[in-house]
Amino acid sequence: QVQLVESGGGLVQAGGSLRLSCAASGIILSFKPMAWYRQAPGKQRELVATITSGGGTNYADSVKGRFTISRNNAKKMMYLQMNSLKPEDTAVYYCNVDGLGVGSYWGQGTQVTVSS
Known about the structure:
The protein is mainly beta. The chain is 0% helix and 53% strand. It contains no helices and 11 strands. The strands form 2 sheets. Strands 2, 4, 5, 6, 9, 10 and 11 form a 7-stranded mixed sheet that branches. The chain has a 4-stranded antiparallel sheet with strand order 1-3-8-7, with no helix packed on it. Strand 9 (91-98) and strand 10 form a beta hairpin. The chain is globular, with a radius of gyration of 13 Å.
């Protein structure tokens, strides 16, 4: 059974930093793209950043230069380093793994709240 567990969320002041982690189990991460999404209250879930198995990354324009996505396939972990946080970054952040035709897997989410 595939399980993704996010951690590292919390309350931080604007300009601060947080590091989110996603721990995967029941799945081999090699060759599978991974991503972070977020969903703010009353808004649709949006893509924040993606990372290929080889480490290629892409970011939403709103977080470029502030967030860094990374992964460790051997440890079955993915990370999101978030710097210079803004109140508009407040959302529930979700970990996603593309199962490449088998399915898409999601974590339960971790709340990030940025106060002004």
